[in-house]
Specification:
The protein has about 400 residues and is an alpha/beta fold. The chain has 14 helices and 19 strands. Helix 1 runs parallel beside helix 3, helix 4 packs across helix 6 and helix 10 crosses helix 14. Bound molecules: cytidine-5'-triphosphate.
Length: about 400
């Protein structure tokens, strides 16, 4: 979402300025090109040189330091950016922006900005909740501003309250949502995609269960990628991994829970990606109390529903089904059998049981198997990159 975007980062003077260095690095890591402008108060907290070295570009601090006669710097920065980010946004700069005051580089550039502006206010709780600050926020929200709600937590004053600068993960996720809301060319816009993830847990008693090595990383990466391409995503996950706040997540534990959650969504869904490692069996009864130790233990299992197979039987022509085949041997042979037996449109076959790929690691090598096409192998790479290829396949197939 952020990759390739030109971001003007405006830094105003609050104690959170030191955290914005990290935010800038995160934006750059996500592929943004960042140019920084700071108010005089911001540079009291962190030197512009820090931002200059890390952004590999001069930092704008003075409206009158027009070093390049061919441009007017603050107008040039405003016009150059695809998106503007203000972090932290102080009550003082907020008030100036709400009233059209342009008395320094930052406020002048922002008054000249027509692109969308994303702001991260951070201040003392009483300053934040003051009616005048809230009125200023409301005024800016009516213009091209998105203003984050600060966190509640430990403030620089030594007590807890609202106004805290949020964690960078939250800022990045909300910024990604903001960018997505300004992109109208996304190929999965208007499509609903359900993704399952993780290894299901089948309870033996209240404290014990049977599961498998799946971490949920592949499914979570697919959900994020489908979302980035514009889809409304429902992530049905049995994984303990966190997911971005913009992903609509249904938490499940057992195969049966997952079956019910996916089937509930299926009618209004355009595509289902079954990346979960669904346990094939569950204990035929769950003990209500923790089982006591005995010399021997025999458990009886019953077969779980096959979710993908059930979906394959119900599937309409306008719905797409993607399954996975995790195999330790004869990968393509078993994958092809699953493609037909489960009436899927694509099977993503992956070798499991090796240390560098598959379950519970960050990378995977997969082979895509569909009808009427030769198998296509996607060589070993990050699961986020594998998910780009799978979602690309889905987009082409749906078109
Ligand atoms: N799957 C499912 N419901 C199950 C078992 C599997 O929906 N009860 C889905 C998985 O999410 C995956 C595909 O079916 O997309 C293949 O799963 P896999 O575990 O590789 O194969 P199984 O069908 O369980 O067959 P086997 O264990 O014999 O390989």
């Amino acid at each position: 979402m952020i990759e390739g975007k030109k971001v003007a980062l405006y830094v105003t003077g609050g104690i959170a300025v030191y955290k914005v260095v990290d935010l800038m690095r995160e934006l750059i890591k996500h592929g943004a090109v960042v140019r920084v402008a700071m108010t005089k108060s911001a540079s009291e907290f962190v030197s512009p040189l820090t931002f200059q070295v890390l952004s590999k570009h001069a930092v704008y601090t003075n409206t009158f330091a027009e070093d390049d006669p061919s441009v007017v710097n603050h107008i040039n920065l405003a016009d150059w950016a695809d998106f503007s980010v203000i972090a932290p946004l102080t009550a003082n700069t907020l008030a100036k922006l709400a009233n059209g005051i342009a008395d320094n580089f930052v406020t002048s550039a922002l008054l000249a900005t027509t692109n969308p502006i994303f702001a991260v206010p951070a201040m003392n709780e009483n300053m934040y909740t003051n009616t005048v600050t809230q009125e200023n926020i409301d005024r800016l929200k009516l213009r091209n501003y998105m203003i984050m709600t600060p966190d509640v937590g430990f403030l620089a004053e030594g007590y807890s309250g609202q106004g805290r600068y949020p964690e960078k993960e939250r800022i990045i996720h909300e910024f990604e949502s903001f960018i997505r809301s300004h992109s109208d060319q996304l190929p999965l816009k208007g499509k609903r995609v359900v993704v399952t993830a993780g290894g299901t847990k089948e309870r033996i008693d209240p404290v014990r269960y049977i599961s498998n090595d799946s971490s949920g990383k592949m499914g979570h990466a697919l959900a994020v990628e489908a979302w980035k391409k514009g889809a409304d995503v429902v992530l049905v996950s049995a994984s303990h991994l966190e997911s971005p706040s913009y992903i609509n997540r249904v938490v499940v534990e057992s195969a049966r829970d997952m079956h019910d959650a996916v089937l509930k969504e299926f009618d209004q869904t355009d595509a289902v990606i079954m990346a979960a490692a669904v346990s094939d069996y569950s204990p035929d009864k769950m003990e209500e109390q923790k089982m006591k130790k005995k010399d021997e233990l025999t458990l009886h299992f019953k077969k779980n529903p096959d979710i993908l197979k059930d979906l394959g039987q119900k599937k309409r022509d306008d719905q797409t089904l993607i399954g996975f085949a995790a195999e330790t041997e004869e990968l393509l042979h078993y994958a092809e059998k699953k493609l037909n037996a489960k009436n899927a449109d694509l099977i993503v076959a992956n070798q499991v049981g090796e240390k560098d790929r598959g379950f519970n690691v960050d990378k995977n090598e997969v082979t895509l198997l569909s009808r009427n096409h030769p198998p296509r192998t996607i060589s070993l790479r990050e699961k986020s990159e594998v998910s780009v290829e799978i979602i690309e396949w889905l987009i082409n197939f749906m078109n």
